[in-house]
Amino acid sequence: MTAAQIEVLVVDDNDDDAVLIGHSLSRAGLPVRLTRAETSEEVTATLAGRPVDVVICDYNLPGVRAEDVLVQVREHDADLPFVLVSGQVGEEKAADLMRAGARDFVLKDRLTRLAPAVQRELHEAAERRRHRHTEQQLRQAERLDSLGQLAGGIAHDFNNILAVISGYATILNEELGPDHALHADALAIEQAAARGSGLTRQLLIFSGLEPSRPELLDLNVVATDMQRVLSRTLGDDVELTTMLSLNLPRITIDRSKLEQVIMNAAMNARAAMPSNGRLTVSTEVVRETGHVCLSIIDSGRGMPPEVAARAFEPFFTTKGRGKGTGLGLATAYGVITEAGGTISLDSRPGEGTTLRICLPPAEIAAPASTLVRRPPSTTGRILVVEDEDGVRDIVGRILRRAGYEVHAADDPVEALRLVHDGLELDALLTDIIMPGMYGTQLAAELRKIRPALPVVFMSGYTSGSAPGGEELPADAPLLHKPFQSENLLNALHTVLH
Ligand SMILES: Nc1ncnc2c1ncn2[C@@H]1O[C@H](COP(=O)(O)OP(=O)(O)O)[C@@H](O)[C@H]1O
Ligand SMILES: [Mg+2]
């Protein structure tokens, strides 16, 4: 039992009895504070006015029936302990009251029983509340789960649509050239599509539907590579500083998800520094644990404790409808914990915010990859398999413009037929989720004929365990729709060489 004061509401018409009740409780060492009520109005007023921990009610009240007080109390709070005290009560009556929800029943000449009864009731009520709280959390988790499924369900189609919009906007842009009067309009379309895809991606990552491709990374390299995009996000009036500890152990995490986390933090920092400020990105090793940490420190307005306490909650936002989604930190939390790390906030109003991400060091340090960059060559025969006409067309146009020879099929069976009929190809570019056969299965089939066939997958999303779907082969990159034409061309170039 905690030493906190116990608020007791005594419903009794008799002063002396109320005093006796109070005495018996304090004598037993319970730190009680008593409020007395005689009428049902007084009971209502007390319950409304202040928190009450336990109600002790006399059975023989002149103005009100104990049964009615009980109903009143139950309506106010189903878990509030209710103990009946009485000089005389028939056994039957007592049984009725217990059935109606009175938790215990003490005779006035046996008041020594009262304190243990109150203590037990308080304990049980706390248990019931804890239980209810757990149930609520479970329900919340279930809600989030179905939301995730919903998001996953539309994300596929939605990303296809965005791929078409952004693909054509890019072509428009290039055709119009920077001096054309409509160039800015086409650019705006491209940017809006990019924002749409950012939002879907956030939802997919958040709901765990986006498969992770963990890789061995140097946090310093990620932080350095992101400098350019960060400074663009932050704008001119935020000063960006990067402070790196050298020779970090490497970590294992999905790179694009980690970048999303850093981006989310930067956007929050940006919003907290409306006029100007400083953002510091720093890396370090925690000597005791070997964990590698990334801190993102802003000089913004900070958070009051009640906001900080809820900041990681999904859909919690202080930014108002249409401005914030409340998914930024929730997503960050999901990504970092999935990778075995921790994420925490330190913030005070007016003093800025530090978001700290710590990741465990990768067990085996693999040799640094030696990446040889070649000049992009864009010749070769590409088989594009995609069931969405719009996506297939735009991908075809991007590839042809770059110099590739493009063959298109609108489903895997058609693709297999083309190959059996003698089509020679240098690479396969395929959607994953298509009717009849998954792109992964198609790739496996074609690799039976040509084991080293270069393959690039594109997908609105893949749930790693799609029924009948195969694991993505490690040597085949996955492009998330909608993709920039630059990324598509890079991916193809990489697998072709
Ligand atoms: N760097 C920060 N400075 C001040 N407040 C922040 C910062 N980061 C997050 N917050 C608070 O936490 C809330 C939740 O953040 P987030 O999950 O990214 O959702 P959103 O940005 O869409 O509101 C924000 O609305 C804001 O009140
Ligand atoms: Mg945010």
Automatic annotation (TrEMBL):
Subcellular locations according to the entry: Cell membrane
Main localization, broad class: membrane
Coiled coil, from the record: none
Pfam families associated with the record: HATPase_c (PF02518), Response_reg (PF00072)
Keywords: Kinase, Phosphoprotein, Transferase, Two-component regulatory system
4-aspartylphosphate: modified positions: D58, D431
Reaction catalyzed: ATP + protein L-histidine = ADP + protein N-phospho-L-histidine
Annotated transmembrane regions: none
Entry's EC annotation: 2.7.13.3
Name of the featured protein: histidine kinase
Classification of source organism: Bacteria, Bacillati, Actinomycetota, Actinomycetes, Micromonosporales
